[in-house]
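Cross-check.
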Amino acid sequence: MNAKEMNAEKVVELWDKYGMYDCIREHCIRVSALSVEIAKTLIQKGEKINIGLVKYGGLLHDIAKVYDIEKKSDVPHNIKGKEILLNEGFRKYATICENHFLDSMFSGKKLSRESFIIILADHLTCPDGYTSFKKRFARMEKQYPSFKKLFDDSYVVLLDFFNYVFLNEDEYKNISKDLNKKLDFKNKEYIHIINEL
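Predicted model, tokenized:
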């Protein structure tokens, strides 16, 4: 299948088609917004980053999350999401979706910088905005104690990336505070919000 172009209308169409809850849509918008800011920072450092891939990859990374929540599939939502996006003709976003789990960093596959950006942004995003790196990992370890080794290994890798991206914790706090102000979900005007990213 040929590569299709992505836009805000298509994202919302896919969200509707696959029954994505508003809370997951808002999470994906937050991940996308932070991912775009991270990408801009890396571009200023001289890296080549595909901002469109980051933006839309963030918006689609949890396309199948409802399958986990409603127990519609035994397949994890990153793999189910990959299948959905491949079937819809969006191969490059399917790869981002597949690779947004922490264990992807240790799978032996070479991850794109865009995938790393999505992983980092996803793990700095919480239901009502953004969180600190330490709080997020502490919460995950408490929630999923059997994954402690994965979290410990991931923490080191992502903390190095976080420290490379941001000058310090205050720079991240300022960016996340600005994004929280900018992202207004009251009217559920998702297409407008996406177009403003």
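The first strand starts at residue 125 and ends at 126. Strands lie at 125-126, 129-130. Passed to J.P. for a second look.
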